[in-house]
Design a protein that fits this description.
Layout lengths: L1 H17 L3 H20 L9 H6 L1 H4 L5 H9 L2 E5 L5 H11 L3 E5 L24 H12 L4 E5 L8 H5 L4 E4 L4 H14 L3 E7 L2 E7 L7 H5 L11 H4 L5 H18 L8 E6 L4 E6 L29
Helix pairs in contact: 6-7, 6-12
The structure holds zinc ion.
């Protein structure tokens, strides 16, 4: 019955938009939402969405699973993106558009001409400028009310924990194994959930990790491979649109986590083969022998490891 009622409601919304009454419907919706907001807080404190926010986020608010309360949650949330490159580009743009209130972005690099075929947050006119500044400009152009915090530096063992502990969720948009392990370990010790992803050539993968609760990166890969064994994107190449697909999925996971929606991609590595257009979900349970989160961990404290100096 509930489903039928919802379907009827959706049909009603659809027909209003089709007959050109969408604007007036939304206005009516806004009024009732504002009334609900007022009754909810009874004048105790001035919070809630402004008229402009209700309009900007109307397609979110109209979703039963998001609503005004969910949008407020997003606006008060903080997400850190490590790497303003191929993965960080779509993630940053979508998180800003979605109204995630504070977005941190870390990268010590400057925009290079060879970045532009995939790092869509940067434009040709940005070549030579700091990637974090270029990313900040685009995110704020999409949504000026989003606070962007820039870190023009690499994450290292001696700074990463202080940076990530300010955030609710971390997106790993880096392109080297040493930093991926560093993010995994730092998030474990700070208990910050994060989305891991990797891309190369025509292939991508991602997994969401709730440290201490679900399979971590070390459960799967144990330790970084020796330097030079696995080629990087700059050595082996990457299809430009590939990080667009994977980075967008990372943003989806961040938003789902912040809103408490659906099933997260935990204990499951999602792989994507762009040539075959094939997604595969590989179930991976926690590894009892994991050196970090296993039964007898060898890594018992966060190490200031010289290996953890990323070279990107
Ligand atoms: Zn583990």
């Amino acid at each position: 019955m509930a489903i039928q009622r919802r379907q009827r409601e959706l049909l009603r919304i659809q027909s209003r938009f089709q007959t050109g009454n969408g604007k007036s419907f939304l206005r009516g919706y806004n009024e009732s939402y504002c009334k609900w907001q007022r009754s909810r807080f009874c004048g105790r404190r001035k919070v809630g969405l402004t008229e402009e926010q209700i309009e900007r986020y109307s397609r979110h608010i109209i979703l039963e699973q998001v609503g005004g309360v969910g949008q407020e949650k997003l606006l008060s949330s903080k997400v850190l993106i490590v790497g303003a490159g191929g993965l960080g580009s779509p993630a940053g743009l979508y998180l800003a558009a979605a109204g995630v209130g504070t977005i941190g972005i870390v990268d010590a690099d400057k925009v290079d001409l060879a970045n532009l075929h995939r790092q869509i947050i940067h434009h040709t006119s940005d070549v030579g400028t700091e990637k974090v500044k270029s990313a900040e400009t685009k995110m704020r152009a999409i949504n000026p009310e989003v606070k962007v915090k820039t870190y023009h530096q690499w994450v290292k063992a001696n700074n990463i924990r202080q940076i990530i502990r300010e955030y609710d969720f971390v997106i790993d948009g880096t392109d080297n194994f040493v930093t991926k392990f560093l993010i995994n370990d730092a998030c474990y010790f700070e208990r910050i959930p994060f989305s891991h992803a990797g891309i190369l050539k025509f292939y991508g993968q991602l997994i969401t990790i709730l440290p201490g609760e679900t399979t971590c990166y070390r459960c799967i890969f144990n330790a970084p491979p020796p330097a030079g064994v696995v080629p990087s994107c700059s050595q082996a190449g990457v299809l430009g649109v590939l990080p667009g697909v994977i980075g967008s999925l990372q943003a989806t996971e961040a938003i789902k986590y912040l809103l408490g929606l659906g099933r997260l991609l935990t204990d499951t590595l999602l792989t994507y083969d762009a040539l075959e257009m094939e997604f595969r979900a590989v179930r991976l349970d926690r590894n009892p022998n994991c050196p970090l989160c296993g039964k007898t961990p060898q890594i018992t404290e966060f190490r200031d490891n010289d290996e953890c100096q990323p070279k990107q």
